[in-house]
Amino acid sequence: MQAVEAWGRRWTESLLPMARTYMEVACRKQSLVCLAADRSSMAELNQLIDEVGPYLAALKTHVDLVDDWTPEAWNAFCSKASDADLLIFEDRKFADIGGISRKQMSGIYDIRSWADLVTAHLISGPDIVDGLQAGWTDVGRNGGVLLLAQMSSRGNLLNHNYTDQVVALGKEHPGVFGFIGNGSRPTELKLLRDSVGDGKLIWTPGVNLKVGDGEMGQRYGDPREAVLAGSDCIIVGSGIHKADNPAHQAKAYAKASWDAFNERPE
Ligand code: S5P
Known about the structure:
Blueprint: H1 3-7, H2 9-13, H3 17-29, E1 33-36, H4 42-52, E2 58-61, H5 71-83, E3 87-94, H6 98-104, E4 117-120, H7 127-138, E5 144-148, H8 160-172, E6 176-180, H9 186-196, E7 201-204, E8 212-213, E9 219-220, H10 223-228, E10 233-236, H11 238-241, H12 246-263
Parallel strand pairs: 1-2, 1-10, 2-3, 3-4, 4-5, 5-6, 6-7, 7-10
Antiparallel strand pairs: 8-9
The protein binds 6-sulfanyluridine-5'-phosphate (S5P).
């Protein structure tokens, strides 16, 4: 199916190139799954791409979790991800002022050179988005910023008022790809979708085929419910990478997300 038909208003109203790139990848892979690849060695990360790459649209990394990181090994990993038709999303959760965030896109990890997407908190104000976008421009690449509008962890401080302000500022910013919403609470997610409209994407962690509480305050909701409530991508970590058979589970998450996507009214 063509991305324009599949995504409808999300496609026509999203002007950021990376948003359309994601929508095309999701259609090619028939999956709205982003794997939270929270493994701490290069070998384990590469193994994950081999095992579950075909069932994913994107791969989310925490580059600073990796014990044996080297620039060469990371480059090879990123090439492997690109060969598997995956977007790379560094979940750095930037939060500093614009100028420092721009510099943090470089440094030892040089995130601007390989990440297609990054996360940011808007606590320091909207210039952070300009800073991160300038980071990509500095190396002639383009990318997209996902702003944390909600979080999945219990007791988080992102209250309704804060969420509304993040959405109001983020909706108007051309460098914003979309928002992180809470996949564990479909009712709250639906409200988020209503206030975001169709011009930005919503990606949701806190989803697992086994709903309930996870480790250290994590909460999980059902992937299908999240997509029906307005999520455009489910971020799944341990549900896949800690499974006995990661490929089998990744396939199940891809199917749940794609079926729900095709069922939801435009
Ligand atoms: O609110 C959030 C935002 C994020 S990006 N809650 C989250 O859990 N995340 C990330 O999603 C978190 O950093 C982790 O990489 C992933 C969830 O992993 P899981 O194993 O709980 O599925």
